[in-house]
Amino acid sequence: MKIIYTKDYQAMSAEGFKVIKHIFDTVPNPVINTTTGASYDGIFELMVKAINDGSIKLENCVLMNLDEYISPRHASYNVYTYMHKKLYDLIKSRPKVIGLMDASVTDRQAELNRYNQILAKYPRDLQIVGLGVNGHLGANEPGTSFDSRLFFAKSDESTVQSTMLYNGLTRDEAPEGMMTLGLADIMDAKQVLVTASGKRKAEAVKGMIEGPITIDVPASILQKHPNVVVVLDEDAASLLTQRK
């Protein structure tokens, strides 16, 4: 596990962007699966700039997503809306393939089957994940099996609260579940990128990097992955005792 320590959110975003840019620069037909949310807002801003100035070429890229809220298709807070607002509506070119989940469907098994076909067709060069305050990855909440595969998951209350905080939702408005890649799916990627910012993530960061590998901290499974890059700001790294 390679850990990059940065001063603040802006520097964290710049270092995370470098990891993504390296994939575009070195892989002819890159397949990238990304998450969304506060930890990646700055990185998406850098990606938009790089795509529009031509330093990132999207035409041969496959771009997918890690998860999606169980919500109406065009809800203001969901991944579909985020990806259009933060990326697709702002760029001059398009990826070869855009793989967005649809967790608004009534036939959930059909949607799982559809997305599993995309995952099988396009092995991921880079899996981008965020770290939940409770140590989750995607919607793999504490207690989820390390063998989990693409599924519909119920969110822990801490995850619901984070969604409310980021999106300005009331408790009644907040979604309570997601369609998500499982931990085994995440581990299948050739490389994994994790970023974390702020003191509220510090306990989860410590558990992911220094704690035992346990389903109580789902992100701890990344200790077993051969190619993980973790980018932290000072606050997120503040509880680590083995900084190098």
Structural notes for this entry:
- By secondary structure, the protein is of the alpha/beta class.
- The chain has a single domain (2-232), classed as 3-Layer(aba) Sandwich (Rossmann fold).
- The protein is built from 7 helices and 10 strands.
- The protein has helices at residues 9-26, 41-52, 79-88, 108-121, 157-167, 183-187, 202-209; strands spanning 2-5, 31-34, 62-65, 67-69, 97-99, 126-130, 151-154, 177-180, 192-196, 228-232.
- Strands 1-10-9-6-2-3-5 form a 7-stranded parallel sheet, with helices on one face.
- α1 crosses α2 (41-52).
- It starts with a strand and ends in a 12-residue tail after the last strand.
- The model has no long low-confidence stretch (mean pLDDT 94).
Keywords:
Rossmann fold, 7 helices, 244 residues, alpha/beta, three-stranded antiparallel beta sheet, globular
Quick structural summary:
InterPro entries: Glc/Gal-6P_isomerase (IPR006148), Glucosamine6P_isomerase (IPR004547), NagB/RpiA_transferase-like (IPR037171). With 244 residues, the chain is α/β, with parallel strands linked by helices.
